[in-house]
Design a protein that fits this description.
28% strand; 333 residues; single chain; QueA-like; alpha/beta
């Protein structure tokens, strides 16, 4: 077991104590790692402006979370959940059946709907499946009626969809919340504005994560607008810091990079950002705390040496930080 994995296994589940269950964004703690100094400091997220400079640019993800978990039944009556993950077109989606299925099998969904499981997305890792959805309504409207937010075993209560949205959510499309931005509130945004910190949005629709075993992240849809690209390039030219709010932002910007400039781009990205990838689009990262085998932690190794990452997770574990989507955050500058 790696050192980082050992420390990440000692981080606490995000919703363990009652006072932290899902909604108290002001309670979120923040570990601040200074790469140049090699130091780590404990803080609260609402103190974020104190660690930023006038002119810094935060890049956020404005994808909104779908109620992407649907109850399903196999022909023999066996119940399972179907997680809707990534849109291919109006009726063809990547999905995650939370149970065994067969190629060509039809799953029965509420209100007379169905999903035909066509084939695994990756035959070697048959977690995600292409599925043909036959629904009585357009998918967003159908999910609003019968779906609920994807919830894993470490979340012991059912929270409403609003608790799975960030303050920046504008465009529905993520099966799971781009959670690094969850602790932002109007209070924090007002303080950032007074500090002279700018905010610009890109879009990357998050697919379903894997908690059972490490695997390559699936392709995801993204968009970097001309306005966002211009704002980021202006900051770079003026030697102002660009800080990504979430690993999704890094994936989108590195996918839209040509040399050291960001270009307007949209489509699919299957980019893997890890220790072998030289990140040049941003100077810092705000991220949640992730399990050591997750692909999110692969990306952290593009920002921190193994020693600094181990130290950071050791500090977080010792202080009882929380991981996952309702957990605490890590600011790397």
């Amino acid at each position: 077991m790696s050192v980082a994995l050992a420390y990440s296994s000692r981080l606490l589940d995000a919703t363990a104590p009652p006072e932290r269950r899902g909604v108290d964004r002001d309670a979120v703690r923040m570990l601040v790692t200074d790469r140049a100094a090699g130091t780590h400091r404990h803080s609260r997220f609402f103190e974020l402006p104190a660690f930023l400079r006038p002119g810094d640019l935060l890049v956020v993800n404005d994808s909104a979370t779908l109620p992407a978990a649907i109850p399903a039944r196999r022909a023999g009556g066996e119940a399972l959940q179907l997680h809707v993950s990534t849109k291919i077109d109006a009726r063809l989606w990547m999905t995650e059946p939370r149970g065994p299925v067969l190629c060509g099998e039809e799953l029965h969904l509420p209100d007379g709907a169905s999903a035909v499981m066509l084939a695994p997305v990756e035959p070697q890792e048959p977690r995600l499946w292409y599925a043909w959805l036959d629904l009585p309504l357009p998918l967003p409207a159908y999910l609003a009626q019968v779906g609920e937010p994807i919830r894993y075993a470490y979340v012991r209560e059912r929270f409403p969809l609003g608790d799975y949205q960030t303050i920046f959510a504008r465009e529905p499309g993520s099966s799971e919340m781009p959670s690094a931005a969850r602790p932002f509130t109007l209070r924090v945004l007002d303080a950032l504005k007074l500090q002279g910190v700018e905010v610009v949005a890109i879009t990357l629709h998050c697919g379903v994560a894997s908690f059972e075993a490490p695997e390559r992240p699936a392709a995801e849809r993204f968009r970097v607008s001309p306005a966002a690209a211009a704002a980021i390039n202006a900051a770079r030219w003026e030697e102002r810091r660009v800080i990504a709010v979430g690993t999704t932002v890094v994936r989108a910007l590195e996918s839209a990079r040509e040399g050291r400039e960001i270009v307007a781009a949209s489509g699919w990205t299957d980019l893997i950002v890890d220790a072998a990838h030289a990140v040049t689009s941003v100077d810092g990262l705000l991220s949640g705390f992730h399990h050591g085998t997750s692909t999110h932690q692969w990306m952290l190794r593009a920002f921190l040496t193994r020693e600094l990452l181990d130290e950071a997770y050791a500090h977080a574990a010792k202080a009882g930080y929380y991981q996952h989507e309702f957990g605490d955050v890590h600011l790397i500058l």
